[in-house]
Amino acid sequence: MMKHRVVPKTLNIKTLNPMIDFTNSPFKVADRQTPWNSPAGYPRRPGVSAFGFGGVNCHVVLEDGPQPQRASHLAGEATTEAASEHYPFLLSAKTDLSLTRLLRNWVRFVLSNSDGW
């Protein structure tokens, strides 16, 4: 959703809850695939929830990251301030070996998705 800026259609919803007034609510049910835009100057912020059978629940709010800058400094051009910024990226694992494997997987992912995602 974040990469392609599209909200997919929600699966398996046949009937909406009649007790929820969606017409006058800021919440919408994705009954069809729609573009996902945000007002100028505001990032998109989705909430993601996970519900476990054992009663463990998790919710996280994500936000659009800074827009990628092409690495023009690699071609000998001057770097822009945005292109030279650094952002923290946290990885955690129980063992050094697990951390090394996780890091390798992330490096592989980033290198294979370096098209400005």
List the helices and strands and how they pair.
Layout: E1 6-7, E2 34-35, E3 47-51, E4 57-61, H1 96-112
Antiparallel strand pairs: 1-2, 3-4
Provide key terms for this protein.
117 residues; two-stranded antiparallel sheet; extended; little secondary structure
Widest β-sheet, arrangement of strands = 1-2
% residues in beta strands: 5-15%
The helix content, as a percent range, equals: 10-25%
Strand pairing plus helix content: what structural class?
Answer: little secondary structure
> Shape from CA axes?
extended
Total helical segments: 1
Query: pLDDT under 50 segments (min length 5)?
Result: none
Distance between the termini: 11 Å
Order of helix and strand elements from N to C terminus:
EEEEH
What would you note in describing this structure?
With 117 residues, the chain is largely without helices or strands. It has a domain at 6-64. Helices cover 15% and strands 12% of the residues. The chain has 1 helix and 4 strands, in the order ββββα. A two-stranded antiparallel sheet has the order 1-2. The protein is extended and about 50 Å long. The chain starts with 5 loop residues before the first strand and ends in a 5-residue tail after the last helix. The model has no long low-confidence stretch (mean pLDDT 82).
